[in-house]
């Protein structure tokens, strides 16, 4: 798991948060510092610094730094670690832009994979496969991923409804039942409408699945199953959603692939049959236009 992702995974007290924020904002200098120096810079104590490291799964500050050095060495051999908020800079040549965006998306998918709980994934796939209808609740920033998932499922006869507007989402959520499964997309996990819809769905007996950024947030607390993407992007100060987009697409692709695999031959035959019909309709239309 990426160190910055791991830093977002625990709940910390007020003084501990000061240490965590210092680690995140001063990655380049922390490796050369002592526990006392970090404590002075964060107006905390040696014990607080050590406690934060232990909460993250390390024996102490030195063990934490060893992990940091290992990660930095890995980043050096695979190319300098990219800033997910600004993966390109003014004056970058097209070759560099192409390389950076590809590297960032690849890293985001690998990090998303490392955050998977395979027991949770197995149970989720069983729910999705058996559901009469899958409802996806999303915002404008994630609707493209939801629509792509809907299109894939449509090709094998799986009913998926994408609800993106506040009124539309509330309509489906308030009528949701045990026959439905709900997938809720929110990068921050604090989208008011999405959290409300998760609660409405659960009230109706619907199992809820969140896809959100890693760490504690209101949406993951409101859902039955949770899937996480890297919390690398800032909400406003970024030039694109390259990392989160890769994470959302990867998880939804896993869902579709898992549904497909449950009845592989039947799904493949269904897809071929209906693709053939569609081709005939298109051919006939072209012929009639001649």
Automatic annotation (TrEMBL):
InterPro entries: Homeodomain-like_sf (IPR009057), HTH_RpiR (IPR000281), RpiR-like (IPR047640), RpiR-like_SIS (IPR035472), SIS_dom (IPR001347), SIS_dom_sf (IPR046348), WH-like_DNA-bd_sf (IPR036388). Residues 124-265 form the SIS domain. It comes from the Bacteria. It holds the Pfam family SIS. Residues 1-75 form the HTH rpiR-type domain. CDD domains: SIS_RpiR. This is Transcriptional regulator, RpiR family.
């Amino acid at each position: 798991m990426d160190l910055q992702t791991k830093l977002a995974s625990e709940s910390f007290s007020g003084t501990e948060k000061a240490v965590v924020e210092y680690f995140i904002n001063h990655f380049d200098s922390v490796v050369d510092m002592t526990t006392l120096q970090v404590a002075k810079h964060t107006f905390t104590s040696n014990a607080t610094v050590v406690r934060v490291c232990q909460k993250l799964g390390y024996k102490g500050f030195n063990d934490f730094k060893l992990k940091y050095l290992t990660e930095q060495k890995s980043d050096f051999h695979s190319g300098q670690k990219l800033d997910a908020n600004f993966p390109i800079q003014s004056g970058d040549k097209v070759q560099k832009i192409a390389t950076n965006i590809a590297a960032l998306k690849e890293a985001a998918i690998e990090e998303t994979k490392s955050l998977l709980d395979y027991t949770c994934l197995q149970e989720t796939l069983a729910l999705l496969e058996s559901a009469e209808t899958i409802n996806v609740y999303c915002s404008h920033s994630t609707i493209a991923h939801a629509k792509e998932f809907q299109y894939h499922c449509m090709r094998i006869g799986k009913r998926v409804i994408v609800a993106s507007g506040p009124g539309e989402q509330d309509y489906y959520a308030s009528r949701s039942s045990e026959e439905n499964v709900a997938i809720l997309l929110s990068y921050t996990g604090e989208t008011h409408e999405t959290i409300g819809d998760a609660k409405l769905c659960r009230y109706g007996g619907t199992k809820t699945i969140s896809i959100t950024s890693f760490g504690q947030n209101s949406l993951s607390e409101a859902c039955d199953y949770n899937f996480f993407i890297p919390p690398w992007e800032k909400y406003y100060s970024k030039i694109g959603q390259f990392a989160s987009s890769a994470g959302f697409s990867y998880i939804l692709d896993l869902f579709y692939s898992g549904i497909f695999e449950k009845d592989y031959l039947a799904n493949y035959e269904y897809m071929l049959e209906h693709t053939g019909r569609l081709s005939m309709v298109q051919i006939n239309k072209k012929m009639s236009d001649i």
